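Example S7 (structure tokens).
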């Protein structure tokens, strides 16, 4: 057993469900482009960067656009998304999150955020969760998308903890792969079928306790 000294958390789907707001914003954009975009299509966007998400939607619609237009559309989607999440409150923190963050802190574990989101500070501030984290690595600090391990390795470096002493909490397949690629332990939040590469899969942080870290 390797002693876990740090927990690194993805944001969307782990601490808060902002996925519904991403979907609403992408759906609004797809409707403008006359592209049929369903919740099933939306599954393909999990853990994927904003530009790649747009490219997937354009592929679904069979539309090709120049880079400048794509940038403008991605910014338009983001402005709608930011408008949605600006209204977030602490009521939308997922079950068990705050309890586990408190438990981990009280047991001297270091905590980091490792998210592709460029809006993580806005979200964490609205949820009043910022103070729990010793390090916040988000889309403003990294250039490589998961499954590249950059976001998690930067988090470990800021915490001054070796990757093998870190555990990552992720709800996306690409995120679990990034954790594996970083040489870290991983706990999946969601479906065991999709997150089969994780060391352990739970349905949410309400199921988490320190004993489960001891068996990693």
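Recovered sequence:
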């Amino acid at each position: 057993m390797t002693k876990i000294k740090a927990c690194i958390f993805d944001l969307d789907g782990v601490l808060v469900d902002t996925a519904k707001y991403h979907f609403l914003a992408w759906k609004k954009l797809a409707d403008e482009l006359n592209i049929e975009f369903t919740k099933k299509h939306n599954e393909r966007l999990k853990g994927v960067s904003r530009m790649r998400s747009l490219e997937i939607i354009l592929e679904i619609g069979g539309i090709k656009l120049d880079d400048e237009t794509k940038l403008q559309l991605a910014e338009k989607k983001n402005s709608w998304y930011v408008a949605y999440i600006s209204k977030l409150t602490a009521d939308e923190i997922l079950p068990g999150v705050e309890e586990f963050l408190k438990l981990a802190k009280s047991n001297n574990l270091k905590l980091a955020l490792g998210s592709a989101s460029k809006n993580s500070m806005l979200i964490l501030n609205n949820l009043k969760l910022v103070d729990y984290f010793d390090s916040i690595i988000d889309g403003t600090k990294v250039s490589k998308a998961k499954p590249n391990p950059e976001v998690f390795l930067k988090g470990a470096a800021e915490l001054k903890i070796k990757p093998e002493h870190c555990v990552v909490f992720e709800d996306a397949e690409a995120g679990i792969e990034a954790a594996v690629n970083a040489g870290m332990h991983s706990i999946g939040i969601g479906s065991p079928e999709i997150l089969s590469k994780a060391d352990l899969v739970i349905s949410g942080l309400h199921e988490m306790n320190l004993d489960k870290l001891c068996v990693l």
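Notes on this example. The longest strand covers residues 110-114.
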